[in-house]
Amino acid sequence: MSEESIDLKNAKVLMVDDTPANIDLLHKILSNQGYKLSFATSGEKALKIIYRTPPNLILLDVMMPGMDGFEVCRILKSQKETQDIPVIFMTALTDTVDKVKGFNVGAVDYITKPIQSEELLARVSTHLKLQAHVIELKKRNLESEQARFAAESASRAKSSFLANMSHELRTPLNAIIGYTDLVQEEASDLGYETIITDLTKIQTAAKQLLGIISDVLDITKIEADKMETNPSEFDVSHLIKDVITVIRPSLMDGKHFLKVNCPPEIGTFYTDAIKVQQILFNLLNNAVKFTRQGTITLTVNRSAQEMTFQVADTGIGIPANKLSIIFQPFTQADSSHTREFGGTGLGLTICKHYCDMMEGHITVESEVGKGSKFTVRLPFQNATQPISSK
Ligand SMILES: Nc1ncnc2c1ncn2[C@@H]1O[C@H](COP(=O)(O)OP(=O)(O)OP(=O)(O)O)[C@@H](O)[C@H]1O
Ligand SMILES: [Mg+2]
Known about the structure:
The protein is of the alpha/beta class and 390 residues long.
């Protein structure tokens, strides 16, 4: 809201003074400004007017018979409906104690009598503008609060919908995969080789779909803050062996060579083993997918503070300007690759979230045409847990 856009015309100013001559003077000074002026000659009358028609600003005399200005102000500031109305005290007192008392009971400013017209005009206009800003700010805060609430509810609804859908989709898919297995065995017993090839295709497609659904479910859980870590102590060599067993079939095309550097004395590690497995599986999967022909190297190292897992390939590489976006959901370095290699762009997002959850981090170095190297560093999470190196 700019200064110029504030229209003070019709701003309601209430003048409170027990001396009619003072009200007259205020009226004369302010009457040309376009404000809607009203007046009261006592604290009690002022409160009645304020409750009936709340003004935008109050000019309040301090010394009045009956309820004095301090008391009026205290009452106004104690009530939700009136506490935001700015009050300017008018005082003949030069005593600092009274000015301080005015501020303590909630005044925004004071003006000393005899009243100087320039000063009065400046102070009234300044506080009316300030109040307009405050009202606008509150309105915007309320709007953004409402928008945030609406967005959060929509996001919660989306998350629970996706969680339910993912479950509903997984169950029949698992049945398809399981029954295809059974039919494959029967077809093999009966010697129906052509059917076996088709059944294998069905199963591959179903497994791909299951992978995508699992990724969507994982992202949904992460975004809904429902993903938990389950740390335990595990043998790193065993975990690497398991990962290689899963990835091995995709390396059987004769175009990829896998090199594993994992010292036998690597020992145990205390963190969420399933998440480490999934990170490595996603990284190796990418390395295979984006390397038409070449070497993939998995290297594991331990230092005093952390365990490092590195997946390097000699594949197509990633352009430098895409390195920062590939960890964002549904983002791929090159959309033409999506058509060629498939994928949803969730693998690295999940890796990054998992690394964050385990208080580690993932980095990438890459050169187009030469290859990529992803490095995952995971700290030893819990010093009280036994972390042994054999
Ligand atoms: N080893 C790699 N070599 C070259 N590009 C890579 C490599 N790993 C990731 N990328 C780029 O980063 C993008 C994002 O990777 P991410 O694993 O998140 O998605 P995806 O592999 O396309 O799909 P998904 O993993 O969900 O099946 C990829 O589409 C690719 O452009
Ligand atoms: Mg991937």
